[in-house]
Amino acid sequence: MKRIKTYHWLCILLLVAGLTFWGCAKKEAEPIKIGGIFDITGPTSAVGKDYAQACKDAERYINENGGINGRKIQLIANDYAYKIPEAVNLYKQYKDVDKVFVIQGWGTGDTNALKAQVAKDEIVYISASYDSALCDPSKTPYNFFVVTSYSDAIRLAMQFVKEQAAKKVVFTYPDHPYGKAPIPAGKEMAKELGLAVGPDEVVSLRAIDATSQLLHMKEFNPDWAWIGGTTPSASVTVKDAVKLGLTTKFISNIWGFDENLLQLLGDAGNERMYGMSPVAMYGADVPGMKSILEFNKKNSPDAVHTVRYIQGWTAMMVMWEGLKRADKAGQLNGPGLKAALETLKDFDTGDLAPPITYTPTDHRPAMSATIYKMSQGKLVPVKKVSIAREDRFLGW
């Protein structure tokens, strides 16, 4: 009888141990959930769709290449159609239901609307908004992005046009946080360089005509104009400038200049349309492009991708590196990922983007970009430009 009781207890102990082991193994096998807030159908979807696709593809690539030290990730991607309230609702879902500690986000308005909350909740927020206001960790400790900020890019643009003998400039942009964010930095740099600044011209992201704005611009007759929209509105602006006989040249931020612009503008952009890009164009001959091209040849051979894809892919690669470092340190959570990202110094993206550095006091990832121009139906690199990492530029 005693032996039977002992046997029964042994079976129970083995069963409990087995269930405990199974539960632990199951927990360890659960993927790391990542929130995704993308614009697939809203006013920036022309540039947002390819970015979102890159993030989804990068999820698969990461999982097929070791994951987070053997553990998979799960990107929970949703379209918020560029609506701030919808972004806020998705954030609440990711935090309360999905229990994420990192989010791949999108726009300037929604990213800024959430910045105080992500800091409070200690959730790392890697956005496609490159608003320099997100770069000061003393104010936005949990916000990151992966390329040169809007403000530093516009400063670089002003330096470039000055080198091109410009005397007068104007700024065109949508009446939206994204469009307005870098304008003060651009105007300040223009004034420092001795450039005369004309009246601003507001061109909607969904503009189909900019005639009235360009007629007003023609009165000032600027040598160069900054474009702060996206490719559809950029093409409308430049086409209407040609129709009205303006001799102004245009230089656009990253979202207003890509491979699609070649078809949208045609000859209208030839030798007069320039753009700032802190990432390589899709298919460029750089080391980091090889894995992207191989992945897409296997999984989406007929897909047409642009520089937006490189932006999204790079954001995921930087996150991947941070997650691996956080996991290795035994701190796979929001504070741990933040600390891990802040150890990145000249992180090599294979020249998909400039080397990336974050510190606990400075979240500016890089200070350089490449200027391209449209010439004979191609996007031609003109010059690599950079600006000093001055404290006075941090956060604005």
Order of helices and strands: HEHEHEHEEHEHHEEHEHEHEHHHEE
Biggest β-sheet: count, sense, barrel?
Answer: 8 strands, mixed
Work out the helix count.
13
Rounded mean pLDDT score: 94
What is the oligomer described by this structure? single chain
Specify the structural class.
Answer: alpha/beta
Distance between the termini: 80 Å
Beta-strand fraction estimate: 15-25%
Residue ranges: pLDDT <50 for 5 or more in a row?
19-26
Helix content: 40-55%
Judging from the principal axes of the Cα atoms, what is the shape? globular
Could you tell me the radius of gyration in angstroms?
A: 24 Å
The total of beta strands comes to: 13
Features:
396 residues, alpha/beta, 8-stranded mixed sheet, 5-stranded parallel sheet, 13 strands
Task: Give a structural overview.
This protein has helices spanning 2-29, 45-64, 84-96, 108-121, 150-163, 177-180, 183-192, 211-220, 231-243, 260-265, 289-299, 307-328, 334-341; strands at residues 32-38, 73-79, 102-104, 124-126, 143-144, 168-173, 196-197, 201-202, 224-227, 249-252, 273-277, 368-375, 378-386. The radius of gyration is 24 Å and the shape is globular. The termini are far apart. The model is unreliable at 19-26 (pLDDT under 50). The protein is an alpha/beta fold. The strands form 2 sheets. Strands 6, 7, 8, 9, 10, 11, 12 and 13 form an 8-stranded mixed sheet that branches.
